[in-house]
Structures are given as C-alpha cells and as structure tokens.
C-alpha cells in the first residue's frame, strides 16, 4: 500500500471524520479485493485496475448479491529505475491500427503517431476501439474541432488542451474504459440511492 494512503488516513482522523466513514485496509490486492467484492454488506465497489482484474471483480460482486461496481481500467509500463516510481516518456511512430499499443488503453507518458488520409477516416478509426475514456483534438478551426468532438465517442474530450479536469465538470469514459461518471453532480449519482415514500392521509 502506498504511504500516501497512510498519510490520508492520518489527515482523515485529524479532520474528525466519524468512525467507519473511511476505512483503509492495508493488505495484498487479490485477497483483500476479493473479500471486498463478495462482502454482502458492502453496497458499492470502485476500482482502478486492468481489464482482466476488473472482470474478476464484476464476477465476484454478483456472487453474494448484486452490487454497483465502478471500474477504471488501466495498463502499466516500464519504470525508469528499479523502484518503478517513474515511467519513461516515449513516442512511437509508424503505428498501425492492429498493433497492441493501439488496441489497448495505456496510462503512461506514451504517444502513438498514426497517419491518416481523410477526416472521415479519423472518425472511423477513433471509434473503432473497446476503450473510450478520453480524447484530445488539436486544431486551428474550433468549429471543426467541436464537430469532431460530437462525432467521436469518448466520455471526455478536450480541444486545444489536455487533461483539463475540474471538480465541477464530470469525467469518465465508456466501454472497457469506465462505467460511471466522476466529479460534478453526475459523479455523485453513483453514490446514492433514491427511494419513494407514499403516505395516505385520508
């Protein structure tokens, strides 16, 4: 477990959070994660993991009861040193659509360069993926950039900027990238349940 989690626990205690509002469990991933996923008294699981692990969590969560599972899936990369604190920034050129680096979602400082011949080709290739987290459009024509943003399917799209995230605006993807919205009003909806109470007065 990262030391930052222990530091957060100290800050949470210092801030005076009521008991059991936040629980930090230091343990190995598979055993602890499985216990959380199958626990009948845990109503919701949010997890950042690989696609393979995410599918296992979904499967485990249906065993004792049906619970909401939020998955943000990611793949790892090569570390700069043997401690794996940093990842080397890398640019790949002459990348093709059928290459693994194109077909998978990678959360490292990596850029893949793909050539294209037409605007329509860009849209078709951008939508031909099982991952739809985010996209960036760099253009001198803002109107054309907005048109493209409406024609491609990622959950978050930035024009002439990238990774501009604020707490007021939602963030999240589709397909295997993500299943729920985060941040903003939409990000809260996954964490509460609505019920109705009807009273007959007469």
UniProtKB/TrEMBL annotation:
Molecular function terms from GO: oxidoreductase activity, acting on the aldehyde or oxo group of donors, NAD or NADP as acceptor
Domain Aldehyde dehydrogenase: 72-197
InterPro entries assigned to the protein according to its UniProt record, in alphabetical order: Ald_DH/histidinol_DH, Ald_DH_C, Aldehyde_DH_dom
Name of the protein in its database record: Aldehyde dehydrogenase domain-containing protein
